[in-house]
Amino acid sequence: MFVPPRISDPPLTRRRFLAFAAATAAAGAAGCDLGVPSLPGYPFTLGVASGDPLHDRVVLWTRLAPDPLAADGLGGMPNAAVPVYYEIASDEGFRSNVRVGGVMAYPELAHSVHVDVDGLEPGRWYHYRFWAPGYHTSPAGRTRTLPAPGDAPASFRMASATCQQYSNGHYTSHVALAAEDLDLVVFLGDYIYEGGNSGPVRSHGGPRIRDLAGYRNRYALYKSDPNLQESHRAFPWVVTWDDHEVSDNYAGDFSGSTAMETGTFLALRAAAYRAWYEHMPVRLPPPTDASLRIHRQLAIGNLAAIFVLDTRQYRTRQECGIGSEGIPCAGFPSPDGDMLGTEQEAWLLAGLGASTARWNVLAQQVQFSPKPLGSFLSFDAWDGYPLARERITSRLRAREERNTVILTGDLHASVVSWVPGTPPGPPSSYGDPVASEFLATGMSSGQLDPAAHAVLEIGYRSLPNMVNYEALWHGYVRHEIGREIWRADYRSVETVAESTSPVFTSASFEVERGDLVPRRL
Fold first, then answer.
1. Can you say whether residue 386 is alpha, beta or left, with left for phi > 0 and alpha for psi between -120 and 50 degrees?
2. 19, 257, 356, 386 — which has fewest CB within 10 A?
3. Cβ neighbour number for residue 88 with a 10 Å cutoff
4. Is 28 within 8 Å of 38 (Cβ atoms)?
């Protein structure tokens, strides 16, 4: 697969940048050829984004796509590399530019660009935008660097969000999210859904995805939504994936709910990972095959260490059933059952052991704390991998400080709980908490009907570690991380059936560092 070359040209000055942009526009109008492909229309239809902030740098993203849903998945672009220019400034009017530069957008990567802008100041806001030949200007975005290592910020505000099935509803949750006062958004997976046309509100516009063009066009469809674009423009994002970016309930090289031969599925997974990379603001190399390491760590000064996990790529197959369909089977749990894979698990355990942050945060996909009935009907979550979970809780028990918070998605429900420190067993055996878990509901994805919700609510509330369960609203979780107190506000919208909706706080919780039992406010 294609790997773009490193750009070794000297930095582009603002004068050179503006002169070249003006020259390409004039040359195009005069019918001259400067060796720069002309674009058939406005190229920034998918907006802009920033992500993976550090204390001195951030990744800026865009993709050139004049015809974003072109059948070949190439966005209506010519089969040629195209120069793209960026500027990042300390002011909204771009009068005080900090960096101006140029990169190439290659057809092999769907003319997406990932610019890792360094030399920035810690803990401050910046504004950015892109330019393309023909003097096309992108919308402006806003981004923020993290506090410097060793800094001791009094607080940090971020949101966790997940599960935004386009066909199930409008992105009213993103309207609310973009209006929040945040430093960061952490997206926990299911950015797209791979299924076909059906949906109560909108259409996916095509059948189940089977190839790279299909994945590219599904991302283009989602990213064409102006509300999603607005929340990307408002804050930097840290993104991980779950299953629907590839195939429902997939596990490693097993295709999950869609029966598929292993080689065929790995080819599909390679296409899915490539399209994910092409559309996410991530500091990663482009994938060259069916693998892509996405687990990584971020530091918010000494306030919090965020461990971004991947619970799909390296896991073993669900032992007793696909997804939530199954009952405990002979030999469960297998000693070989693994959720994170050997390398990622060792990386996480070492990171937790070495961390001196006030809070340790696991940003991951599926419910970590026990569900009602344990592994029964829950083989896709951590209940289906109890020995792998125990290796992590064992490390958390060994820590002198109780300061771990787990951020989770996947379930399309709001669940607040604490994680028992004992090995898997009946609720009566639960030990002291070793972590808190805040599970975000879906931004727009489908939910249970009220009758099923009532039954599950009874089961969840029967668990001694369960603080709250609710599956009637869509939205996200707003977190305010303090030195001693972590506050989580569940922000909910009244409807996703309409394009606009009021937003409200459906529940609020606090966790005290050293205690970890969430308290409802």
1. alpha
2. 356
3. 23
4. yes
- Cα torsion for 362, 364, 370, 372, to the nearest 10°? 140
Distance CA 401, CA 520 (A): 23
Closest to 84 (Cα-Cα) out of 98, 70, 64: 64
What is the C-alpha to C-alpha distance for residues 184 and 169, in angstroms, rounded to an integer?
A: 24
**Are 77 and 134 within one domain?**
yes
- Which tokens belong to 99? 């960096």
Please report, for the domain that includes residue 320, its CATH number.
Answer: 3.60.21.70
Q: Is 147 left (phi over 0), alpha (psi -120 to 50) or beta?
A: beta
Determine the Cα–Cα distance for residues 291 and 314; give it in Å rounded to an integer: 9
Rounded CA-CA distance 312/88 in Å is 35
30 CB neighbour count, 10 Å cutoff: 7
Q: Domain of 138?
A: 14-144
The beta strand positions in 90-239, using DSSP E, are 97-105, 112-117, 125-132, 136-137, 141-144, 155-161, 184-187, 237-239
Pair (258, 138) in one structural domain: no
24-74 per-position pLDDT tens digit:
555 445 444 456 788 999 999 999 999 999 999 999 999 999 999 999 999
CB 339 within 8 A of CB 311: yes
Pick the residue with more confidence: 515 or 430? 515
Q: Which helix (H) or strand (E) element contains residue 178?
A: helix 172-178
The whole-chain average pLDDT of the chain stands at 92
